[in-house]
Amino acid sequence: MTNQRPLRLGFFSYLDGQGSPAEIYGNVSELFIRADELGIDTGWVAQHHFGHHGGLPSPFVFFGSIAGRTKHLGLGTAVITLALEDTVRVAEDAAVLETLHPGRLQLGVGTGFATDPVLAAFDRAGQDKRALYDVSVARLGELFAGAALNDVDDTLYPDAPDLGGRIW
Question: ω into residue 79 within 30 of 0, thus cis?
Fold first, then answer.
């Protein structure tokens, strides 16, 4: 007898296409809502700044809207470009989404599409995106585990210890 896992099905969207940002976001929102109704397990989005290869600079804001309009669909970032982001802010935004919709966020992170011009736009010109990523991903794990944010022992609020096991 073999041990079989149930089939899980997800999808990925760049949030690109014809139309205004409002039309594109609306269309992809409908895709997520229909996927939830059909029993799809997870929907993933890419973070891209400036409209290159998809135009979604704020996946957590998008997922906040989607989570309130769906019941079960997992919500995955593929990926949050950590070299361009403030690590504490990423942790806080993810923790708020986790608090409001427990267990639904899958936090995909990476170096992403951080070219030299994009790094410059985020005041990180000349910095190594891989080194920025390495520091940030380690810090994310620490923050979700309850590490102090500063020398007066402030910690992530709201706390989200389960998210540490859902960083991809």
Answer: yes
- 49: nearest Cα among 81, 92, 89: 81
Report d(CA 81, CA 64) in Å as an integer: 19
The whole-number mean pLDDT for each consecutive block of 10 residues of the chain, a chain of 168 residues, reads 84 89 96 98 94 85 98 98 97 98 98 87 93 97 97 96 96
- Strand 105-110 vs strand 74-81: parallel, antiparallel, or unpaired? parallel
Mapped onto helix, strand or coil, the DSSP state of residue 38 is helix
Backbone angles phi, psi at 3, to 5 degrees: -90, 110
Domain ranges of the chain: 10-166
In this structure, which topology does domain 10-166 adopt according to CATH? TIM Barrel (3.20.20)
